[in-house]
Amino acid sequence: MKPILKSAKLANVCYDIRGPVMQRARQLEEEGHRILKLNIGNLAPFGFEAPDEVRQDVIMNLGDASGYSDSKGLFAARKAIMHYTQQKKIKGVTLDDIIVGNGVSELIVMSMQGLLNNGDEVLVPAPDYPLWTAAVSISGGTPRHYLCDEQSDWYPDTKHLRSLINEKTKAMVIINPNNPTGALYPEEVLQELVQIAREHQLIIFADEIYDKMLYDGAEHTSIASLADDVLFITMNGLSKNYRACGYRAGWMVISGDKRHATDYIDGLGIMASMRLCANVPGQYAIQTSLGGYQSIDDLVGPGGRLTRQRDLAYDLMTSIPGVTCVKPKAALYLFPRLDPKIYPIKNDQRFVLELLEAEKVLVVQGTGFNWINPDHFRVVFLPNTDDLTDAVGRIARFLESYRKQHLG
């Protein structure tokens, strides 16, 4: 039989957050092992539920959710998103500038497919949320990774970013707050990125899904609030701030200089129509979420559960010999570094697989986020304090064995 092959468009696409190591974890679970999962920012399994009033709104409106909505989304949902952009000081957003999607993930792919021709290039951070790189590749584009500098709180290396720009560069992706590093970019960094986009007529795609998961009193600035002469596509949704990953309710907001982008904006409308509409029950959660009590503030404030777990995970991880980490200012993740002199790792996917086999702890290797060296991994600090302590203790035990094995 002639083999049936996957599309060549998938040749450079990977999503190791749900990749082969996770598949091995599933096999181990089927064999009866308990796996401590520090790999995915899926909040519900760790006891972080969507707010009661949000769930009630979805339930109450199910009777009206059987049919398609407008391809861009329900009026009430988009009106609430428009009001939210005003709170974030993003100017000039109308209802027509908002498209609701089945989570930000769908909108990332739509936005790239609607923009890119074969050979077009997009600047993507390294490390990144790997769906951005995958979406560029599957849309026929070429991702060009600009480095973020661990020595500077993981802020973008703008000198390196500038060096990657050429006549094929169409856009720049900014993930702020950042996954996987937990970095939060100050306004002066964002202003510099806007200036680069302005000079080279680049679109800015801003992934701001963690904009309320902020620690130690930090504040988030939407980059689209800083200029009106650059085209911005800002992505956000309910998955993280409102612990509603499964509702698949996200949105994109088009703002800034739209005058020269009417054809692209028309293309986004075509893409929205082709998938008919976003999940309607999930859309009914948007208005109540954005307008109601912001319970995320209790989780990330002083003494809040996420703050306590971040501090615990950071303290435990950085107490391991040869492990350093920039303390995250936002989001759900640590991105620790393993000193290559102490941990001479050649293949970090094999490293995390060995950790899984030995200690039944599941993490994601740094190269899964398009990081350049096999010396980082991402840890999710969602488990409760007992499980976190247990998991990081197992990582420490594995690393001690690794040191002895490789250094004598």
TrEMBL record:
CDD domains: AAT_like (cd00609). Pfam families: Aminotran_1_2 (PF00155). InterPro entries: Ala_Aminotransferase (IPR051926), Aminotransferase_I/II_large (IPR004839), PyrdxlP-dep_Trfase (IPR015424), PyrdxlP-dep_Trfase_major (IPR015421), PyrdxlP-dep_Trfase_small (IPR015422). This is alanine transaminase. Residues 35-395 form the Aminotransferase class I/classII large domain. SUPFAM superfamilies: PLP-dependent transferases (SSF53383). Its cofactor is pyridoxal 5'-phosphate. Belongs to the class-I pyridoxal-phosphate-dependent aminotransferase family. GO terms for molecular function: transaminase activity. Gene3D superfamilies: Aspartate Aminotransferase, domain 1 (3.90.1150.10), Type I PLP-dependent aspartate aminotransferase-like (Major domain) (3.40.640.10). Keywords: Aminotransferase, Pyridoxal phosphate, Transferase. Its EC number is 2.6.1.2. It comes from Limnobacter profundi.
